[in-house]
Amino acid sequence: MAEWVNASVKQVTHWTDSLFSITLNAPITPFTAGQFAKLALEIDGERVQRAYSYVNAPSDENLEFYLVTVPEGKLSPRLHALQPGQPVIITKEAAGFFVLDEIPDCTTLWMLATGTAIGPYLSILQEGKGLARFEHIVLVHAARYAQDLSYLPLMQQLQQRYNGQLRIQTVVSREETAGSLTGRIPKLIESGELEAAVGLPMTAEHSHIMLCGNPQMVRDTQQLLKETRGMRKHLKRKPGHMTSEHYW
Ligand SMILES: Cc1cc2nc3c(=O)[nH]c(=O)nc-3n(C[C@H](O)[C@H](O)[C@H](O)COP(=O)(O)OP(=O)(O)OC[C@H]3O[C@@H](n4cnc5c(N)ncnc54)[C@H](O)[C@@H]3O)c2cc1C
Ligand SMILES: NC(=O)c1ccc[n+]([C@@H]2O[C@H](COP(=O)([O-])OP(=O)(O)OC[C@H]3O[C@@H](n4cnc5c(N)ncnc54)[C@H](OP(=O)(O)O)[C@@H]3O)[C@@H](O)[C@H]2O)c1
Q1: 207-213 and 108-114 as β-strands: parallel, antiparallel, unpaired?
Q2: Residue nearest ligand 2's atom 45 by CA
Q3: Which residue out of 19, 170, 173 has the highest number of ligand 2 atoms within 8 Å of its CB and is therefore the one to mutate?
Q4: Which residue's CA is the closest to the ligand 1 atom numbered 33?
Q5: CA 113 – ligand 2 centroid, Å
Q6: For ligand 1, is residue 74 a contact (CB within 6 Å)?
Q7: Residue 122 in contact with ligand 1 by CB distance below 6 A
Q8: How many other CB atoms sit within 10 Å of the CB of residue 80?
Q9: So what's the pLDDT on residue 49?
């Protein structure tokens, strides 16, 4: 049984009508960058709990989560309505294996995300530990519209901090906008546009691909990389090239 602790909402940032970030303070035990917690509220006498990835570095006491309001969703619209000072409950221990310790050595580590799934990568990159073994890191954030790229300023700051080791690329699917590729991640890999824009190849020999977010994006990209690049899922007992986390 998970142990729950009380958290207090410190801040809520509304990026768009549906995208928001919550900052909490709570006495959790230390987590590893890339992991998630469960947040819960009592709704009609029932505890409704869902998983949310930490965005902050583990060393930061402000616990940050990046969310989208799912229309008709049970919990996310309630979290969207929270105000500073209100209570939430959170699992004391984080969970999940979408962490750097699970990633084998490679020349180029690709971090691919749709929507709010940029979170775990931001945690990993803000913490900044265990990354020196990769010559290149590529952070790709795919969203519907340019205004949904809420963490672009942080991505740009990180790019500067990593001084050439980190490249960032945004992808927008429902409009054309300067500075972003247009379309969906798998199509942009298939056409070669993503690699051309980033300036690095995605090969089984030199790359590892982390995939997070929309489960159909994860499946479509894995299928494409399997068929066209000879990549396979990474397992402890059989090392491969792709590590993923599905958000639903
Ligand atoms: C490991 C893990 C980490 C997660 N981290 C985050 C996170 O950092 N931020 C975040 O916003 N969500 C995250 N999620 C999703 C989150 O746990 C909830 O599923 C989401 O907030 C919807 O809950 P709900 O009660 O509002 O919707 P529900 O009433 O549970 O309805 C769920 C339905 O909404 C859709 N859905 C669920 N999540 C999403 C989503 N993110 N985008 C689009 N459609 C969705 C699916 O069709 C799903 O069947 C994560 C999920 C997992 C498994
Ligand atoms: N984002 C918003 O502004 C917004 C506003 C209101 C409500 N919502 C709700 O929030 C939920 C999540 O929306 P979201 O925009 O965060 O997440 P999302 O629907 O997963 O979309 C994020 C990105 O992933 C892409 N994508 C979807 N399926 C894919 C696939 N199979 N392969 C590759 N890429 C794929 C989308 O492209 P496509 O655009 O081509 O699908 C989009 O660029 C939805 O329920 C939505 O109705 C979102």
Answers
A1: parallel
A2: 70
A3: 173
A4: 73
A5: 11
A6: yes
A7: no
A8: 19
A9: 98
Tokens of 63: 């616990």
Cα–Cα nearest to 3, from 95, 99, 120: 95
Write out the two tokens for 246.
């599905």
State which ligand 2 atom lies nearest to the alpha carbon of 174: 39
What angle, 0 to 180 degrees and rounded to 10, lies between the N-to-C axes of helices 152-161 and 119-127?
A: 30
* Beta pairing, strands 136-143 & 87-91: unpaired
| Two tokens, residue 213 | 């977010």
Q: Which residue's CA is the nearest one to ligand 1's atom 32?
A: 73
C-alpha 22/C-alpha 9 separation (Å) is 7
Query: pLDDT tens digits for the chain (248 residues)?
Result: 899 999 999 999 999 999 999 999 999 999 999 999 999 999 999 999 999 999 999 999 999 999 999 999 999 999 999 999 999 999 999 999 999 999 999 999 999 999 999 999 999 999 999 999 999 999 999 999 999 999 999 999 999 999 999 999 999 999 999 999 999 999 999 999 999 999 999 999 999 999 999 999 999 999 999 999 999 999 989 999 999 999 99
CA of 247 to the centre of ligand 1 (A): 6
SS (H, E, C) 1-23: CCCEEEEEEEEEEECCCCEEEEE
CA of 168 to the centre of ligand 1 (A): 25
State in Å: Cα 40 to ligand 1 middle: 13
Q: Is 154 helix (H, G, I), strand (E, B) or coil?
A: helix
